[in-house]
């Protein structure tokens, strides 16, 4: 099951959206900002089908 979550690009400040699989307790992946195209490392923690935390850092 996946949930959408918003994050703020650490490079340009633009808001983006990612889909997080809430069946996986800890995820870490790289995505590119749709505005400035720089890499962003997303870290997400989930439990019981919901996102507990989402962090976006320069990738």
Briefly, what is this?
With 59 residues, the protein is mainly β.
Instruction: Estimate the helix proportion, in percent.
Output: under 10%
Strand order of the largest sheet: 3-4-5
Low-confidence stretches: none
How many β-strands, per DSSP?
5
Please state the CA-atom Rg, rounded to the nearest Å.
Answer: 11 Å
List the secondary-structure elements in sequence, H or E: EEEEE
Which oligomeric state applies? single chain
Number of domains: 1
How many helical elements? Answer: 0
Shape: elongated
Describe the structure.
The chain is 0% helix and 66% strand. It has one domain. It has a three-stranded antiparallel β-sheet, with no helix packed on it. A two-stranded antiparallel ribbon has the order 1-2. It is built from no helices and five strands. The model has no long low-confidence stretch (mean pLDDT 96). With 59 residues, the protein is mainly beta. It has strands at residues 2-8, 15-21, 26-32, 39-47, 50-58. Strand 4 (39-47) and strand 5 form a beta hairpin.
Quickly list its features.
59 residues; mainly beta; three-stranded antiparallel β-sheet; two-stranded antiparallel sheet; elongated
What's the arrangement of secondary structure elements?
Elements: E1 2-8, E2 15-21, E3 26-32, E4 39-47, E5 50-58
Antiparallel strand pairs: 1-2, 3-4, 4-5
